[in-house]
Amino acid sequence: MFNLSQGTIVAKRTTRATGSTSSTDIVTIHDQQLHRGKGGELHQIAEDGAELLTTSQGGPVADDQNSLRIGARGPLLVDDFHFREKIFHFDHERIPERVVHARGYGAHGFFETYEPLTEITRADLFQRAGEKTPVFVRFSTVAGNKGSADLARDVRGFAVKFYTQEGNWDLVGNNIPIFFIQDAIKFPDLIHAAKQEPDRAFPQAQTAHDNFWDFISLTPESMNMVMWIMSDRTIPRSFRFMEGFGVHTFRFVNAKGASTFVKFHWKPKLGLQSVAWNEAVKINGADPDFHRRDLWQAIQSGNFPEWELCVQLFDQEFADNFDFDVLDPTKIIPEEVLPVKPIGRMVLDRMPGNFFAETEQVAFMTQNVPPGIDFSNDPLLQGRNFSYLDTQLKRLGGPNFTHLPINAPKCPFHNFQQDGHMAMRNPVGRVNYQPNSFGEGPRQSPSKGYQHFAADENGQKVRLRPESFADHYSQARQFFLSQTPAEQRHIAMALTFELSKVETVAIRERMISHLLNIDETLATTVAQKLGIQAMPKPADAAIPTRQDLERSPALSIVENGPKRFEGRKLGVLVTDGVDAKLLKKLKTTIEKEKALLELIAPKVGGVTASDGSRVEAHHMIDGGPSVLFDAVAVLASPAGIEDLEMEATARDFVADAFQHCKFIGYDENAFPLLVKAGIANDLDEGTILLPGDEGLAAFVSELGKLRVWGREPGIKLGKA
Ligand code: HDD
């Protein structure tokens, strides 16, 4: 090793990125120059001033390009420890992907408490207004493998780890407030049926196949969830524009041990938004990382996404009088019946420095609750409390996954757990048990430690589903009737598409028999589109659908959309000779709205604008289809538009935007492209001739409406 006491500090620093020099970073010992890293650690320096490449044992590497061999063309040698170590490590780079939620994307941020909730919970993070608690969030899809595309029709995971002062709290939720099944024992069957079929190993990240719909149609408790997954909730435009839910009923417990039931809701500040199904399919081709890229871009550019944490609080009396069992995870409590109360906000402001270390290795567990938060008897939640700890052992390879920085609490923690694979927190000293008479080590504390809510429980040991869980259709109908006409159309289209991929006719018909218990028009529409000749009878129901429940506007995405275009993206297709003044004004108007503008041009090198200035494009037309944007505009010169008219991708750009009911702005020169795209005769309030740079603010304010869904029935009639 190097003897630092004999070293000489030299007044020179070299950094790899810039090659610049400064005064403190290089230490010379004898003839060895060492580079001091950020944490004060020393690295050897290579000939070009960069850190020296070493083996994992710290041995300096002379040649990382050629393995050791006999002669220039001879066999390789076992002596080559550097080669062996490098390949050995590479061979073991992968860990098992999550059995569900394999594809995910995470970010760091903080949670800020609005006001003390001392009366209802002793949870430390809710005791002080303005308190900031660090969080890590992982969004995910459920069914697809790690490399599947982002816009699969699927539930999205919304898992939040709060690093509180009294231990980690994991709120492991989804973007849908209910679940498919009422008992965790059904989870393996549900997931087997949803994922690719085991003999053929397809379809990937899709529920549009026989096994899924076979299981679902034999599981009436899933019908409420079927309405949600066939709605646009499962094709969100961005993680930033979706809600999150804790799903189950939990308990808040105060310092006196009194309990209040609680359901958790995350509300995105920028409102809800989803894409159209045809658009989702195309996004998957154009940018399979669409959701990742969106979150990355937003956070890297300082547009930090934000959600409010809201709660529905209720007591036993409310639970006893509510229409449904609050322990049944296939049911909501409508927000109109029990309003949500905002209790804090979460801001995501930092991407992980290393995807594997944090997003892949993060281990969420429903049983991670701090004092003041407790479980209810929801059988799905109780089953989950077993599953999550168990799965981490398999995935992360040993019991010490809590030592990984992403999983370790940020508060002090002490116990007598020891050893095991990859132990990184190793206590020193003799005493590793308690009680001990040496007065060493941590001690339990009845007053400060976690106290489980002392619920009264008694009864026979049985395998039973309570009668109160038996109404599987009323809330499904309520969800359907609470949607706008466009959203109802989308549910019918989604069911038709999914069931059209089911080969077994009896399964299709069984699904129609369930739909008849939800909404007759929906059932008939889907049956007709599937070409079912004779309508089946409605499915036998343990409890028939109740009288119509009140419509719940909170269940619609369209009715809870944004008020403005903020956080969205306008794609502007431009040609050489584009009006420089108009383009510049459009950009400033969009940016004033805190939205993004990206340019698409025939060449990615960009175009020359009317004033001779060069404008660089973000995308070449083939790589920037309109599905990647929330709204589009076409700005052209007379000569430029002639070229665009010849490009199939430019015609698709406009035709797709029209079909997906987007706003389309265009200047006079661009009109011929609308003609070529076949939409010139169908212009409506969403196709806007840009009124010159003065009227751009009005155009951008229209964009806040996001879509012209009224256009859709016309398109279906073959207008465009
Ligand atoms: Fe689960 C992962 C959400 C039911 C068993 N689940 C997982 C993740 C989310 C959810 C968001 C990904 C966490 C991450 O990003 O690492 N799961 C839910 C919700 C459910 C639900 C909202 C119903 C309300 N899950 C559920 C049941 C079981 C599981 C009933 C088993 C009995 N879930 C798991 C798991 C996973 C998981 C196998 C896979 C990887 C992991 O846990 O860490 O244990």
From TrEMBL:
SMART domains reported for this sequence: Catalase
- Broad enzyme group: oxidoreductase
UniProt-listed InterPro entries: Catalase (IPR018028), Catalase_AS (IPR024708), Catalase_clade2 (IPR024712), Catalase_clade2_helical (IPR043156), Catalase_core (IPR011614), Catalase_haem_BS (IPR002226), Catalase_immune_responsive (IPR010582), Catalase_large_C (IPR041399)
**Positions of the catalytic residues:** H101, N174
Record keywords:
Heme, Hydrogen peroxide, Iron, Metal-binding, Oxidoreductase, Peroxidase
Which SUPFAM superfamilies does this UniProt record tie to the protein?
Class I glutamine amidotransferase-like, Heme-dependent catalase-like
Enumerate the Gene3D superfamilies for this protein.
1.20.1370.20, 3.40.50.880, Catalase core domain (2.40.180.10)
Q: Which cofactor does it need?
A: heme
Where does this protein hold heme? R98, R138, F187, R384, Y388, R395
What's an example Gene Ontology biological process for this entry? hydrogen peroxide catabolic process
Domain (Catalase core): residue spans on this chain: 54-442
Q: What's its catalytic activity?
A: 2 H2O2 = O2 + 2 H2O
Pfam families in the record: Catalase, Catalase-rel, Catalase_C
May I have one GO cellular component term? Answer: cytosol
Q: Which domain of life is it from?
A: Bacteria
The catalytic activity of this protein is classed by the Enzyme Commission as 1.11.1.6
Show the PANTHER family listed in the entry: CATALASE, CATALASE-B
Family classification: Belongs to the catalase family. HPII subfamily.
Q: Report the protein's function.
A: Decomposes hydrogen peroxide into water and oxygen; serves to protect cells from the toxic effects of hydrogen peroxide.
UniProt-recorded name of the protein: Catalase
